[in-house]
Amino acid sequence: MLKNVPAWARFLIVGLLMIVPYVWFSDGPLQQFWYDAVATAGVAAMAVGIRRNRPEWAAGWWLLVVGQALNVLGDGIYFYVYNVLHHDAFPAPYDIPYLLSYVLMVLGLLSLLRRRNHGRDRAGLVDSLILASAFALLSWVFLMRPVAEDKSLGLLGQFVAMAYPTLDLLVLAMLAWLLTSDGPRNVAFLLVTANMVGFLVGDYFWAFAQQTMYNPSNLGSRLIDCAYLVAYVCFGAGALHPGMVQIGRPVGPDRLQSMTVQRLVLLAAATLIAPALLAWQAWHGHGQVHDAYAIVLGCVVMFLLVVARMMMLVRQVQAQAVVLEEQADRLREVAQQDPLTGLPNRRAWNAALPAALQRAARDGTPLTLAVLDLDHFKQFNDAYGHQAGDQLLKEVAVAWADNLRAVDLVARYGGEEFVVLLPGATAAEAVALLDRLRPRTPTGCTFSAGVATWNGAESADELVARADRALYRAKDAGRARIECAEATVTA
Q1: Angle subtended by helix axes 58-79 and 95-116, to nearest 10
Q2: CB atoms near residue 328 (< 10 Å)
Q3: Residue 213 backbone zone (phi > 0: left; psi -120 to 50: alpha; other: beta)
Q4: What pLDDT does 480 receive?
Q5: How far, in Å, CA of 482 to CA of 411, rounded?
Q6: Which of 83, 210, 385, 426 has its CA 20 to 30 A from that of 287?
Q7: Which residues contact 412 (CB under 8 A, 6 or more apart)?
């Protein structure tokens, strides 16, 4: 039935089915053997997945494998110490592999996350620190402070007991960073996330039971064990999935991250934990707050992190505004540029001419424009083809633009027709300037032109129309010539 099912899915299904009978096992060697067998299978699947999928950054994955293998070793030592040696002192030898396992898991996750985000995902890191700070405050109030006040444990015992929730907080920070970072969220990503969630759920339930002096029943203890077993199976299946190579793969260049509603709600809830604890302790203690300094410290840390996050958002908005402005500038430039010749197009001309008329009126200087038309361009196209005609237009645009004054403006008006704006030039000076263009027109082509000087009162359209009529006179007179429009009398 599972023949055509991928290896990762088969392992996940079989592994979860193997966990189900564990709930009904009684304490003893069989229970421990079953637990270690499922956990070891999960670790072995991780190793097989790494060898099979060959991720680009395997070191981080091997740290995770060794870390979870040490956790399995700690479970075996725990069973031997308690059930064979009947030794219940704390700390015990099994604490060494347990603590090392979490250290290696944190290092492995940190290695993958830094590679995944190029070490530049500061926004995701700050968000994860906000969440970790909130849970650190909860851990101090409900888990760490009772240990710190328990002098019967001794200095080493207190250190070891507080190391567990501290390392859990680091794992939680890595989980939050993973969930808030960019990159693909495929099946492997979800399974690896489920692994971390399973370990954290098991740890926090067990720690809560210990600190509240609640001794979980056999069924309750086995349910906590099942959380760990699900974590092992999920990680094994995730490592077998081909998508695991994308978890530690760089996601590309930096890009702007949006503050989603879900993330905002999560961060807001995290920052409200400190005042909620303050209110709870004040109510529960009839006005006395036992962890005032810890709550104050937690509020200060989260406030500073929120301020840092706000600064990042402001910088993102500013950066986005700059990008949008650059895009708008490029769009305006493209909208006013002829795509063939690179000259200003008719849209740009229609914006430049009224502005030039206003300057001429203000300064009292002459303003002349000319309309130029390549002679016999249609025949050139028919003889040599449209590609040759397009190339001629490009060469004409370069030649004319290079041989006009810096203040002059030449634009493509349409087809083979061009317009030239000549500020400060009289009609005679304009004709002299246009005569310089004749020998520089490519391939021996000629042009006809109509020139008109602004009379100080007519509109832009009227001025162009006068120059256009002069152009048609030049064409009717045999082409390859320049005609000046008749002067008009100002009303």
Answers
A1: 160
A2: 10
A3: left
A4: 92
A5: 18
A6: 210
A7: 338, 340, 341, 343, 344, 345, 346, 393, 397, 418
For the stretch 394-420, pLDDT in tens is 999 999 999 999 999 999 998 899 999
CA distances from 214 to 82, 92, 211 (A): 19, 21, 7
Distance (Å, whole) CA 21 – CA 66: 27
Q: Give the residue from 419, 162, 401 showing the smallest Cα distance to 170.
A: 162
**Class of 346-484 per CATH?**
alpha beta
Residue 89: both structure tokens together? 């002192």
What are 147-164's pLDDT values in tens digits?
777 777 788 888 888 888
pLDDT band at 490 (very low <50, low <70, confident <90, very high): very low
Q: Quote the Cα angle for 321-325-326, to 5°.
A: 120
Q: Specify whether the CB–CB gap between 219 and 25 falls below 8 A.
A: no
Residue among 195, 210, 133 nearest 164 (CA): 210
pLDDT of residue 216: 54
Domain boundaries, the chain: 7-322, 346-484
Nearest of 109, 74, 106, 108 to residue 92 by alpha carbon: 74
Distance, CA of 285 to CA of 139 (rounded, Å) = 19
Give strand ranges (E) for 331-408: 367-374
**pTM of this prediction?**
0.63
